[in-house]
C-alpha cells in the first residue's frame, strides 16, 4: 500500500514542521496583541423577566 510508505512524506512533513517552528512561529510571537486584556471589574447585570404574551 503506497500510503503506508513514509518516503517522501515523512521528510516533507519534517521540513514543513521545522520551518514552521523555527522560522514562522517566532515571527508570529513577536506581534503585540491589538486588544490587550484589562483588569476591569465586570458587574453582572440582573436579567429582566420575560414578558410572556399569555400571562
From TrEMBL:
It is a single-pass membrane protein. One of its GO terms (biological process) is proton motive force-driven ATP synthesis. Signal peptide: none annotated. Its main location: mitochondrion. One of its GO terms (cellular component) is mitochondrial membrane. The chain crosses the membrane at residues 6-24. The keyword Ion transport applies. GO terms for molecular function: proton transmembrane transporter activity. Keywords: ATP synthesis, CF(0), Hydrogen ion transport, Ion transport, Membrane, Mitochondrion, Transmembrane, Transmembrane helix, Transport. It is found in: Mitochondrion membrane. InterPro entries: ATP8_metazoa (IPR001421), ATPase_protein_8 (IPR050635). It holds the Pfam family ATP-synt_8. Belongs to the ATPase protein 8 family. This is ATP synthase complex subunit 8. The lineage of its organism: Eukaryota, Metazoa, Chordata, Craniata, Vertebrata. The gene is ATP8.
Amino acid at each position: 500500500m503506497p500510503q503506508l510508505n513514509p518516503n517522501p512524506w515523512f521528510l516533507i512533513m519534517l521540513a514543513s514542521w521545522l520551518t514552521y517552528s523555527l522560522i514562522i512561529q517566532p515571527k508570529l510571537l513577536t506581534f503585540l496583541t491589538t486588544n490587550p486584556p484589562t483588569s476591569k471589574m465586570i458587574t453582572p447585570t440582573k436579567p429582566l423577566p420575560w414578558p410572556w404574551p399569555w400571562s
